[in-house]
């Protein structure tokens, strides 16, 4: 059964003779795996690099990349962009949990857009995957402690071994 991505590529590629480049945007889960797998394997630790091996867990991003690599024909180039975080507004998405970071989101979204445009037009960026980040090295597990301290709240580390 074809995925939506395969169906899209199968419809676009043969019917867009001027198409030169395809950007695939995935994300940080490429390095840390899906949330539901956390605690069941050892994810990579930041900072993340493009050449890190895929963790041995199922991840939809790997499927999308494999489809892209298979579907791209001669003369067509690709790039994969893996931003660490994209904050945005959605009534039906958990990204609203971090709504207080929306200013950062708007800045970072511009960075990602510029990055993808660059990859589409610069010959040295063709057929590459990029860890699209502004250079900050942080870990989410450390953010919550900082926020708790900032707001004078009690903090307790998350223990992956706990069942509850």
UniProtKB/TrEMBL annotation:
In terms of InterPro entries, this protein maps to:
NAD(P)-bd_dom_sf, PRISE-like_Rossmann-fold
PRISE-like Rossmann-fold domain mapped to chain residues = 14-110
A GO molecular-function annotation = oxidoreductase activity, acting on the CH-CH group of donors
Alphabetized SUPFAM superfamilies for the sequence: NAD(P)-binding Rossmann-fold domains
Q: Name one GO biological process term.
A: lipid metabolic process
One family name in Pfam for this protein: PRISE
Give the protein's recorded name: PRISE-like Rossmann-fold domain-containing protein
């Amino acid at each position: 059964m074809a995925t939506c991505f395969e169906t899209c590529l199968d419809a676009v590629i043969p019917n867009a003779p001027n198409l030169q480049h395809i950007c695939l945007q995935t994300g940080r889960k490429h390095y840390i795996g899906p949330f539901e797998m956390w605690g069941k394997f050892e994810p990579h630790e930041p900072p993340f690099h493009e050449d890190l091996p895929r963790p041995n867990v199922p991840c939809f991003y790997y499927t999308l990349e494999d489809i892209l690599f298979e579907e791209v024909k001669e003369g067509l180039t690709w790039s994969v962009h893996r931003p660490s975080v994209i904050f945005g507004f959605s009534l039906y998405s958990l990204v609203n949990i971090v709504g207080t970071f929306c200013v950062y989101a708007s800045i970072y979204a511009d960075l990602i857009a510029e990055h993808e445009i660059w990859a589409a037009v610069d010959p040295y960026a063709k057929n590459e995957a990029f860890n699209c980040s502004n250079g900050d090295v942080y870990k989410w597990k450390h953010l919550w402690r900082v926020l708790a301290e900032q707001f004078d709240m009690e903090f307790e580390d998350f223990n992956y071994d706990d069942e509850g």
